[in-house]
Amino acid sequence: MSMTRRLALIPFLLLMAILVISLLHPSVPAAVANHTNISFADTAWMLSATGLVLIMTPGLAFFYGGMVSKKNVISTMLQSFICMAVITVVWVVFGFSLAFGDSWKGIIGNPATFFMMKGVIEGAPWELAPTIPLLLFAFYQLKFAIITPALITGAFAERIRFTSYLLFIVLFSIFIYSPLAHATWHPNGILAKWGVLDFAGGTVVHMSAGWAALASAIYLKGRSMPGHHPARITYVLLGTGLLWFGWFGFNAGSAFGANNLAATALATTTTASAAAAFTWVIFDAIRGRKPSAMGTCIGAVVGLVAITPAAGFISIPHSLVVGIASSIVSNMMVEWRTRTNIDDTLDVFPCHGVGGIVGMLLTGVFAHHNINGLVVNDGLIFGNTKLFTVHVLAMLAVSVFAFGGTFLLLKITDLITPLRVSEVEEKDGLDWSQHGERL
Predict the structure, then answer these.
(1) What CATH number has the domain spanning 43-420?
(2) Bridge partner residues of 104 (DSSP)
């Protein structure tokens, strides 16, 4: 039996185990309680927001797929799409429990709390989303868990073995994403108790993916043929549009209701992204570069990344500052990265990682309780240092955890199944060598 077939037995056996558990597990929930605080308006909005966040992953597939060489477009796009399948299964079995189950020392949830969605259909609403069903909250949060490992793929595009990638994203979801989600978004999470504010995932999603991307680029080393021409700039434009559209569900949906806070998050998301896209183009022009479609798209996404942790905590004028600052810093980081031997193929760390860091720190500068009552300590610009100090410390802790943890997971994955394709497979392109398909 070939190595590929032997490796394929691992997920097959896992699926068979899940099938057996599903058959043995009680499939009919207890009678659904009539939770009187459920709002039909909030539920309708959150159903829509859940769909909006999901469409971001296909959007990311087009965004990344258009940037790689033609012989790697299908493989790169599939790496995003497959997350919708793999992470959903993990989330339903025990992923939701790890992120939002009963807390163990504020670090991780009990995997048995919502095992196989036990008690979710009939359960009381989540504490911080009291007007929508718990089931809707669980599947809204699933979409965040899906896109996070997909974001990492841009760093090791054009050189990772697909079967190894599947194992890696499962490990990442369990050991990196879920602990960060629990620590930040669970009321008993360690970062939540510190007072860290992350409205929609700057820390949990973008910083974790960014640092994981840097670890991946360093561990897998450079491509044998690093230069390439983007296959389809039109794919990048389409992907950016889908991402921007879906991001309204990502950020405004994190208000967990059809309310003024959701409108505020939608507005700050729009303005930060617009400011960042415009700034990227202008900054390129100042340095003698032509205004490009690629630059405009990257700038827009950087702005979306940076505003994510701050969207529901800061004012609209301050969101312009977040967009402009993140665009300049990320642009400079991309320039710096090109002068190193780090082959982060699609600059995931300079854009998502650094964008998330800038957004997190600026949340500590601009957050105000008049925007969101969850803000206990106003930001640095209002004369308070506590929130900013906490965010600096949390940024350092999350960075070390995400980078070091991912590096260890890459090593473990590589020991089980080689991460890198062979030089011949890389030359042929991953579309053909990994999937037997061509664009």
Answers:
(1) 1.10.3430.10
(2) 108
pLDDT tens-place string over residues 47-86: 999 999 999 999 999 999 999 999 999 999 999 999 999 9
At 147, list the tokens. 């896109």
Question: CB atoms < 10 A from the CB of 220, how many?
Answer: 18
- Grouping H, G, I as helix, E, B as strand and the rest as coil, residue 225 is coil
- The reported pLDDT for the residue numbered 2 is 59
Nearest to 314 by CA among 305, 322, 324, 302: 322
Alpha-carbon distance of 148 to 90, in angstroms, equals 14
**Which residues lie closer than 8 Å to 330 by C-beta, 6 or more apart?**
298, 302, 350, 351, 354, 355, 358
* Both structure tokens of 256: 């967990």
Quick one: tokens of 257?
Answer: 């209701």
Q: How confident is the model at residue 27 (pLDDT cuts 50, 70, 90)?
A: low
Residue-by-residue DSSP string for 163-212? HHHHHHHHHHIIIIIHHHHHHHHSTT-HHHHHT---SSSIIIIIIHHHHH
Judge contact between 75 and 428, C-beta under 8 A.
no
| Nearest-angstrom CA–CA distance, 305 and 325 | 12
Beta strand ranges found along 70-109 (DSSP E): 103-104, 108-109
Q: Measuring CA to CA, how many Å separate 1 from each of 5, 8, 9?
A: 6, 11, 11
Residue 3 Cα distances to 8, 17, 223, 416, 417, angstroms: 9, 22, 23, 11, 9
- Count of Cβ atoms closer than 10 Å to residue 404 Cβ: 12
Q: How many other CB atoms are there within 10 angstroms of residue 376's CB atom?
A: 12
pLDDT band at 409 (very low <50, low <70, confident <90, very high): very high
Length of the chain: 439
CA dihedral 224, 228, 232, 238 (to 10 degrees): 70
Output the pLDDT for position 1.
52
Residue whose structure tokens are 């990772």: 160
pTM: 0.94
Q: Please report which helix (H) or strand (E) contains residue 292, including its range.
A: none
What tokens appear for 146 in the block? Answer: 């899906």
